Amino acid sequence: MTHDAVAYVLADYGAAPKREGRPTPSPGPGEILVRVRACGVCATDVKAFSGALPEISLGRVLGHEIAGVVAQTGHGVAGIEVGTRVCLYGRDPCKRCAYCVRGSENICAHQGPRLGFERDGGFADYVLAPADSAYPIGGLSFEAGAILTDAVATAVHAVMDRGKVNENDSVLVISAGGVGIHVSQIAHARGATVVVADPNTERLAVANELGLATWELTKQGNEWDALVKKHEPRAIFDCFGMPDPSDLINALPMDSRIIAVGYYPDNFLRVPQMTLVRKELTLVGARAQTPLNLAEAIRLVQDGLVVPIIDDVRPMTEISEALIATADHAGRGRKILVNQPLLITAVVLRRDICVHAHGKGRRTPRVCADNVADNTRFVQ
């Protein structure tokens, strides 16, 4: 058997992924084979590699933010052609349970194996996926297409489905990381007043470039009182996973709602019960995304209403470095691994914001005079 494909395997928790040669897989009935061109690196991947997620077994290929080209289709597949540029919805809902019927496929009662979790994901040359998980991305870059599947679509779910943000809202987004910076943009696109809070000044600079108000968190004393007094947020998105939000909760105005998007497995919320009741606060979780959320994420980016924020594009061989950078909350946006030579790549975040990647060099945003119609342009 010829091992003509490469995959990066979780060989041991906490260890660097192991590069393995594997046969190119063949799609079964109802499946497609996708040649992976880009795969995002998410904080969930860091948790998985550390052993914090019990559903992740050794030997798994991780990576759930996937974009590429359909290389082969299995028996019975219709409506998707070989050569189509796609991103992949990573979940496999049953489509029959009460949650799926109401449009909450993200919490399906009979969820099938998910890409990069219970089935092999995108840190590889090829990935097998259900045919109905493929969403065409047209002229969008593979890098942008990859993070649409989670960083952007999860933000859509948080803002539209769980936060129910509208033009009358004042929104506070805690953390301008991979999901938070897109939550901020989507809330802004819906007409809300938005302020982004983060201790990372590089990330705040991106938010400023996108026209958003910012607040630098100093971690010195209780700074929530001053922030709330100035901005009066009524919808608060915790995209980090605060270990103790009690000071923030005490500072919030009546009838505020808190949407928990980020999390850490060992964090337990300490919520002042009397404050929760007397202020009539709402606390909800926001998990992943639905197929409709992904379709909406694609539309928002294609219409120019949301900019996929990509900080660092590396070859797949540098997977360990990308995981470390993600764990350290380094940089200004999502880290992307690609299965192509990285020579001189210009990832255009919008018409006047660019991130330039020169091989392994530093990526720095700058004002870009290029008038481009697409979100990403490649110069090689």
Label this structure with key terms.
380 residues, Quinone Oxidoreductase, Chain A, domain 1, Rossmann fold, seven-stranded mixed β-sheet, 19 strands, 26% strand
Task: Give the topology, please.
Layout: E1 5-9, E2 18-22, E3 31-41, H1 43-50, E4 65-73, E5 85-88, H2 98-101, E6 126-130, E7 134-136, H3 142-162, E8 170-174, H4 180-189, E9 193-198, H5 201-209, E10 213-216, H6 224-231, E11 235-238, H7 246-251, E12 257-260, H8 273-278, E13 282-285, H9 291-302, E14 310-315, H10 319-327, E15 334-338, E16 344-350, E17 353-358, E18 364-366, E19 377-378
Helix pairs in contact: 3-4, 3-9
Please provide a written account of the structure.
- The chain is of the alpha/beta class and 380 residues long.
- The strands form 4 sheets. Strands 3, 4, 5, 6, 7, 14 and 15 form a 7-stranded mixed beta sheet that branches.
- The radius of gyration is 20 Å and the shape is globular.
- The two termini are 35 Å apart.
- Give the low-pLDDT segments: 342-380
Compute the number of structural domains.
2
* Main pleated sheet: 7 strands, mixed
Could you tell me the strand content as a percent range? 25-35%
Q: End-to-end distance, in Å?
A: 35 Å
Shape: globular
Helicity level, as a percent range? 10-25%
Describe the structure in brief.
Helix content is 24%, strand content 26%. With 380 residues, the protein is α/β, with parallel strands linked by helices.
